[in-house]
Amino acid sequence: MKKNLKVAAITGLLVIIPLLSLAQAEIVPPLPASQGNAFAYLLNLVDKLATYMLSALIVVAAVMIIYAGFIYLTAGSNPENVDKGKNILIYAAVAIGIGLLAKIVTLLARQFVSSPNV
Fold first, then answer.
1. With 26 labelled, which of 12, 46, 48, 52 sits at a CA distance of 20 to 30 A?
2. CA–CA gap between residue 43 and residue 105 (Å, rounded)
3. Single pTM value for the model
4. Torsion-angle region of 29 (φ positive above 0: left; ψ -120 to 50: alpha; else: beta)
5. Which residues in 15-42 are b (16+ Cβ under 10 Å) and which e?
């Protein structure tokens, strides 16, 4: 019983701790688009779109990770289901990585455009 409680506590922490990062403020301020800078407007639009898509991707990936865990745990001695669960888990992790990379690229592009030439 204590082992199950420890596993539940660790799992809860692993789920809750990443949510704390959502409370941080925006790191890079948006570019001023009022000066007729079409590129700044486009970059802000792409950044907002990337943020919304990343949020949706994380929700879908979380569901897929739970599904992969269910498939893996209920596989029993069926090696096909074990492989299926592993593959779904790998695909979900790769999707999260690509989504984070896309968000990082938009932040770096905005930082590069908004920084003064030195």
1. 12
2. 11
3. 0.61
4. beta
5. eeeeeeeeeeeeeeeebeeeeeeeebbe
Tokens representing 12?
């809860």
Q: What is the DSSP letter of 118?
A: -
Give ∠ CA 49-51-56 in degrees, rounded to 5: 95
Q: Check residue 84 and give its pLDDT.
A: 93
- Pairwise CA distance, residues 38 & 65, whole Å: 40
In this structure, is the dihedral angle defined by the CA atoms of residues 69, 100, 97 and 12, taken in order, positive or negative? negative
d(CA 16, CA 101): 22
Q: Give the residue extent of every domain in the chain.
A: 34-114
Quote the tokens at residue 53.
């898509």
